[in-house]
Specification:
- With 166 residues, the protein is an alpha/beta fold.
- The mean pLDDT is 96.
- The protein is globular.
- The two termini are 15 Å apart.
- It is 47% helix and 10% strand.
Length: 166
């Protein structure tokens, strides 16, 4: 599990007791940060890598093109260093809209879908599972409009299981 505080905030191993799950989520991380610390993932030779990153980039005003370029480099490097691994790029989740406009997240997710297709990664679109009809985070799944509560993590995990065929 690779990403920012959304990834870091879950005890993934508890949900997957029969597997070894390494949580490489770092609070406040951005795509460049993940790119710079890929060795902390690849050295373990995982069978799967689940990447979610980008909301902090958007909050900090980093251009979508730069975010997508970083994520494309991440996916390419993972594919090169872990040729037998399944690489999954997950969409950025909606927020309550205070920090980032929904349109920005949707545009980034569309670019991510394309980046995954170009690099051979699998794309997992989590956004619809967490969005209201107004493209805000479903209030019952978050404690602050960005980060998930337990119910939110259960939905995320189920989506990963459905998408990866676990």
């Amino acid at each position: 599990m690779l990403g920012d505080s959304l990834t870091a905030g879950c005890a993934w191993q508890e949900y997957e007791p029969d597997k070894v799950v390494l949580n490489r989520g770092v609070g406040s991380d951005i795509s460049e940060g993940v790119l710079n610390r890929l060795d902390s993932v690849t050295k373990h030779r995982p069978d799967e890598v689940m990447l979610m990153i980008g909301i902090n980039d958007l909050v900090k005003g980093i251009a979508r093109e730069e975010i997508v370029e970083n994520v494309t480099q991440i996916l390419t490097a993972l594919k090169e260093k872990l040729p037998q691994a399944d690489i999954f790029l997950q969409s950025v989740l909606p927020t309550n809209g205070e920090n980032v406009a929904a349109e920005e997240i949707i545009a980034l997710n569309n670019a991510y879908r394309y980046a995954a297709s170009q690099t051979g990664a699998h794309y997992i679109d989590l956004y619809p599972l967490f969005a209201t009809e107004n493209d805000a985070m479903i209030p019952e799944l978050t404690y602050d409009g960005v980060h998930l509560n337990g119910e939110g993590y259960v939905i995320w995990l189920q989506a990963l299981e459905d998408s990866s065929g676990r």
